[in-house]
Amino acid sequence: MQPALKIPILAAALAFAGTAHADQPRIGLAAPLEGPTAPLGTQMRDGAAVAARQAGAELVVADDKCSAEGGETAARELVAADVAFVVGFLCTEAIEAALPVLKEAGLAVVTPGVRANGLTDRRTRTGWPVWRLAPRADAEAQAAAEILPRHWRAEHFAIVDDGTIHGRELAESLRLAVEIAGLKPVFLDTFRPQMENQIGLVGRLARAGAAQVFVGGDRDDIAIMARDAAGLGHELTFAGGEALRAAGEVPLAEGTLMIGLPEWADLMDEGVSERFAGAGVVPEGYVAPTHAAVEIALEALARAEATGASVADSLGGEPFDTVIGPVAFDDKGDLSQNPFILQRYDGERFLPVE
User: Fold this and answer.
1) Which CATH architecture has domain 9-135+267-327?
2) What is the pLDDT of residues 168-182, one digit of tens each?
3) What digits encode the pLDDT tens for the residues 34-43?
4) Which residues pair with 111 in a beta bridge?
């Protein structure tokens, strides 16, 4: 009989039943398991556990507490546990404190959670052995700039933002992209956010002849604009970023467009979905990306052993087949393809626009 799958929890208590093979490497997971980010850390832990169980591998879990001190401590615990690869991390402070320790130990890291651009932009200077499944912080703006000009080439469109740093960056990125494409918005403006209505803005958009409106702003502001436009009889389609997935009091209008990440469950085949269901795990949030990170870790280790190449070289080679589809990394360790796509709200959920 094979020994039970062991998932030691460092600074937490948890046990999963399963099977493990003696020749399988140990995979370390660093995730926040206490405090306000604990629900997200639990998603990461559950996804990694399902992947480890499926592969017959051993998973060692350390609580990084979403802090610099916790990240360094978690890294030292995983090194002491003799793991062969590390996945996880949700917070920039934790992974930046952990990486010098993991670099010294010669351990590669795949993170499904940290978006900060500097994590990989500084690779040449830091030498940090990190690859990321999470999109870069600027990936949303880049996707909007690449996708929307193609869709709106024959449309009268407007670009507005709420004056925040994030909203303005989204709007400015799109404005520059359409200018390069030889297009010109019929209306540009900054609006006052968190108003009970946006009737004045909607009126100006209609008078300018806009049919499509990109909004660098929050979900509720976009929902209010669409509500007021419909109430005034103006046929305007509004688009925004992934903030549209947030909960809100005002219903979103059917047809609202979003530049956002796909629902990971939609990318899985039936067998994978059944695997999660059988483990009592809902593949939401960070569950599927962390599962994919473990798949990548195990395959990279197998490739390195088979070819004699380093694990780092193995991560930069052929794409990896994962539960969220093929994954490949560029020379900096970022995803080789931007995961943000254009989606349309059908009254209940966002669906990809073909």
Assistant:
1) 3-Layer(aba) Sandwich (3.40)
2) 999 999 999 999 999
3) 999 999 999 9
4) 132
